[in-house]
Design goal:
Radius of gyration: 21 Å
Strand content: 15-25%
CATH superfamily of the largest domain: Pseudouridine synthase I, catalytic domain, N-terminal subdomain
Oligomer: single chain
CATH topology of the largest domain: Alpha-Beta Plaits
Number of strands: 15
Number of domains: 3
Distance between the termini: 57 Å
Order of helices and strands: HHEEEEEEEHEHEEEEHEEEHHH
Helix content: 25-40%
């Protein structure tokens, strides 16, 4: 097995991050520094990452849906005083990591998992995984101005953006709500696209990935994915669906914790989000 895949399967990080650890000399195999092309036998070789022995997990992988609030960084470790998602998912046992990213000013659905193979495929552009965003922009947008998004764009820095699906979901004189579906994952793609078209973004929210929908989660909340949702994700990237024997018990336990939390006072992120939605609604 390729070393970066082994590290990801152990739930340490994604394949891409594993490669960075290897390049920095933080990974050893049987006591010797490893290289990117190193192959390992999970049953025989002793692998260490950042000084700690790592092993393949015997239990089932974990799959969660998380609603990232606006103002929170898509990271597990804080680099400064800004909030990161790890602070909001402390109830999840074991190490999970986000699949892909949402920038600080965006909100919505993130998949959290310790399954490196699934994460790598969901992010790889060759699988063309659809990701849909609800984008609220200022003013009334004429339908013909959206043709550039549908046909593909070339930005001022010569970055080429592939064609995307876009629909007008709702519209008033003050604002237009768009549903934009992307099939690639370039950095801040929707924001750069809207900037090129002189659209002012009021709200950017990811609402689905590979036909798995965010639903009624509130900002800062998370829940285990259902069997049906996991099946959709695995089917989208041509992977065999895993066993759900232990996952069901863990999912039920987490669901109960989420229900109890919902009955308590709302979080700061929820209050802020609802205030923003109320302000937008009052402008109709």
């Amino acid at each position: 097995m390729r070393l970066n895949k082994f590290i990801a399967e152990c739930g340490v990080c994604s394949r891409r991050t594993a490669e960075e650890y290897i390049k920095k000399g933080q990974v050893t195999v049987n006591g010797k520094p490893a290289v990117i092309t190193t192959e390992v036998d999970p049953e025989k070789d002793l692998v260490s990452c950042a000084g700690k022995r790592i092993r393949m997990k015997a239990c089932d992988k974990q799959y969660f849906m998380f609603y990232k609030p606006r103002g929170v960084i898509t990271a597990m470790k804080a680099q400064d005083d800004r909030s990161v998602i790890a602070e909001l998912i402390q109830g999840i046992k074991g190490r999970v990591f986000p699949v892909g990213r949402l920038d600080r000013d965006s909100e919505g659905m993130l998949i959290l998992t310790d399954d490196g193979e699934l994460a790598q495929r969901l992010c790889h552009p060759s699988y063309r995984i659809p990701k849909t965003y609800r984008v609220t922009v200022k003013g009334k947008i004429p339908p013909e101005r959206l043709d550039a998004i549908r046909e593909g764009m070339t930005l001022e820095d010569d970055t080429e953006l592939l064609s995307a699906e876009v629909l007008i979901h709702a519209q008033t004189e003050e604002k237009t709500v768009l549903h934009i579906t992307l099939y690639e994952g370039k950095n801040r793609e929707i924001r750069r696209m809207c900037q090129a078209l002189d659209f002012t973004i009021l709200l950017l929210k990811r609402v689905s990935v590979a036909d798995v929908k965010l639903g009624r989660l509130s900002p800062g909340e998370y829940r285990p994915l259902t069997h049906q949702e996991i099946t959709k994700l695995f089917g989208a990237v041509d992977l065999k669906v895993p066993s759900f024997k232990r996952m069901s018990a863990e999912a039920n336990s987490c669901m109960q914790k989420n229900r109890r939390r919902e009955s308590r006072n709302k979080t700061f992120h929820q209050r802020r989000f609802e205030k923003q939605m109320k302000q937008l609604g009052s402008k109709k």
